[in-house]
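Module 6 notes. Inverse folding takes a fixed backbone as the condition and produces residue identities as the prediction. Think of it as a translation problem where the source language is geometry and the target language is the twenty amino acids. Below is one complete input and output pair. Work through it position by position during the lab.
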């Protein structure tokens, strides 16, 4: 006795294609999610006394890397391409010694950590939405 199912080949092809579906997701989904987080980080950056952004607009979404395993990595903030324009924000995060009187300046220490925590929920929510949209495109 044998059983025969119509459409089994289609199901098998779908299951096989799902094995590498993560590798088919476009990195623009991740970049768009990081851009939403970048806005929050720029808002949390220390402001100058006159209220200007003090270089926060130079913060950027870094290069998105995709590894052979399917993992994707990316970052927001300061990298080698914008270091000169944003290095003062780095020193505000860790604190620094004033060049004239030698006192330690720390009013904004930890601002990057606070900005990361504030943007995390927005980025993860956006990432989930963008990845689901990409999966819908792939599976259609």
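Target side of the pair, the amino acids:
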């Amino acid at each position: 006795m044998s059983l025969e199912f119509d459409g089994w080949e289609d199901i098998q092809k779908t299951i096989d294609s799902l094995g590498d579906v993560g590798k088919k997701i476009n990195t623009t989904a991740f970049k768009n999610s990081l851009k939403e987080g970048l806005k929050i980080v720029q808002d949390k950056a220390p402001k100058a006394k006159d209220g200007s952004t003090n270089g926060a607009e130079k913060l950027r979404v870094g290069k998105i890397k995709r590894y052979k395993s399917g993992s994707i990595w990316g970052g927001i903030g300061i990298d080698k391409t914008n270091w000169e324009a944003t290095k003062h924000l780095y020193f505000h995060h860790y604190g620094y010694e004033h060049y004239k009187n030698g006192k330690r300046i720390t009013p904004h220490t930890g601002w990057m950590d606070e900005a990361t925590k504030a943007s995390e929920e927005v980025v993860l929510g956006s990432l989930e939405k963008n990845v689901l949209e990409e999966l819908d495109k792939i599976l259609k």
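Reference fact for the lab report: The chain has one domain: 21-139.
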